[in-house]
Amino acid sequence: MRAAALYSAAGSLLLTTLAAAPAGHAAGGGAPGVPGTAELRGTEVAVARARAAGADWGTCSSADVPKAPSGVRCGTVTVPLDYAHPDGAQIRLTVSRSPATHKDPYNSKRKVPRQGALVYNPGGPGASSMYFPLVGKVPQWKRVAAAYDLVGYSPRGVGRSAPLSCEDPKRFVKAPTASPAHPSETYKRQRIAQAKAYARGCAQRSGGKLRYYTSLNNARDLDVLRAALGEDRLTFMGASYGTYFGALYAAMFPSHVRRMVLDSTVNPDPAKIWYRSNLDQSAAFEDRWADFRNWIARHDDVYRLGDTAAKVQRSYDTARDRLAGKAAGGKVGPGQLQNAFLMAGYYDSFWPSRAAALSAYLHGDPEPLVRLAAPSPQTAAQTENTNAVYTAVECNDAPWPTDWKVWDRDNTRLARVAPFETWDNAWMNLPCAYWPAPRQQPLDVRTGPGELPPVLILAAERDAAAPYPGALEMNRRLAGSALVTERDAGTHGLAGGPNTCVNGHLEAYLLEGRVPARHASCAPRQEPSPQPPAHRDRPALNAH
């Protein structure tokens, strides 16, 4: 499951502040899971070319970075489609950059020395960080922005970087849709047919290029980008999925790493990539959904959705059943309700708006829910592109079960104890069962003592999108890494957020190279304050 909204704390703060192939294909043509010699040589060729050519910088278009300040520049970096054939087809990745400000926010007389470029990826797969240079205006990022050029980019397939598409965007965001927690056999057959059609669409729209959209190629592209920026060693921060190919990069090019922050860490265990990782997510989202329901129950005086988690669940079920009978605004059905509330599983800052919209709907006013959950025609193309890249990368990266009986067995069992997101997550990934491109074997990410500079890992204990055991596994696999845990919290993406303890560790690392002991912990951030729903004067409906 991709990170809904695809923003770490950096992105959400910015927005708030600035308004059927056989399995077992080798990863690179060599032994299973080991990048091949041809790809390694191809990367060296591409890196040399990029270092000589640099990036093609110019002004940013509105498609690149809307309303970009004059200091932000945009450009492109050329990479091979297939690293085994570096002289073959080329693609261009869009890149954005703002120069280090050199301004100490706490001492106007001090000029801060530049430390190089900080490259950021917010995850997905399918997310762009073209907005990242703008976060230097956010108070939590000003010290980092003083020392680093802030660099964002769109990975291959994303945005204008050789974009992928699997389906007509209008069809992809068609609404309303269903979201049964316990689907019937008829519904399952419908979703199987849709998954097969989607996989075919990816192949038809992409042709022979589809197989080259992988995490290993994302890591290789990152090394080419490093060279184009003129950096001998890379300073990188990845969130969510960005932690996975960041870890691949660390394992493939350890001597090219200067500093690396892995924020909300994907479990790199090859056995988890990606089928079991998604099952783990579905189980974790059930716990996070319980956190949200308990918060609503504690504020029953505001929301009137029930003073226990069980009563809140009944309110949610009531809304889902009513939307199945009549979509709100003609566009919001159970599927759109589920998507909106899944976002609250990623970011507790979204709890007040979701609870308020649900309360307003059940008390007679559907408009807040429609504004929150109805798909936007203006973003349909971007949404479809994001999903296409997500699907292609995850399906290409690893073997998936090709027998529907395995999916049905595993998700039926899990849905008995974790019904909130299990089946919707399964439907999102089911095209991988019928994928037409060759599958790779995941790289076994490991580094030994002294092979890699210390890596800083950030994780929240109750993160559902990147369950906490993944951070522990990453910490074990990257020798010398340090783990900072936000206790009893579940927001996905911690860097630059409201937790001053987390930000202190981040700044100490990026600005001074200091890491804590192998494990450090921070108290949780403050829970969000409730937001009263609209139209509280309307008569209450029997929600619970």
Automatic annotation (TrEMBL):
Domain Peptidase S33 tripeptidyl aminopeptidase-like C-terminal: 423-522
Keywords, in A-Z order: Hydrolase, Protease, Signal
A Pfam family of this chain: Abhydrolase_4
Signal peptide (UniProt feature, chain positions): 1-26
GO molecular function, one term: peptidase activity
Any Gene Ontology biological process: proteolysis
Ranges of compositional bias, category Basic and acidic residues: 534-544
The keyword Protease is annotated on this UniProt entry: yes
Protein family: Belongs to the peptidase S33 family.
Protein name stated in the entry: Protease
